What does this fold into?
Amino acid sequence: MEPARVSGTVSIEEQRAYIKIETLRGKNPTEIHSALSDVCGELRVDRSTVSRWSNRFRGGRVSIHDDPRPGRPKTSTDERNVKRVADALKQDRRATCEALSEVTGIPPASIYRILTNDLKKRKMSARWVPSIYRILTNDLKKRKMSARWVPYNLTG
It folds into this structure.
């Protein structure tokens, strides 16, 4: 009997939970990976990942969540600072990263990262605007391409 495919995606934590349960039931990583492949298809974790997590669970690990990573935690691009930058930007959409840095006390490089990555903004005509304005429609792309070729076609 063919296993039913689940519509949507199965998160990494859900796959780890399945690996944990099947490991405790005594299945080997190859069998677990095969079962995940049947259900998740291409969105499954790698065979080596199944083996690594299976070994961890056999060794007594309880949690399916990642351990805290070493190194300095992110501080300047947290949610509180993203809100502060968004509020400052509402006051003046023409503000530079340096000006926003003076207002918020966040380094200019972090301001730029927040604007481009978190708030999805880009500078256009001295204003920070949503990145969606940068996307060209197919019709505009065709017009742009045909306009580029006009001088070459006229010179013969």
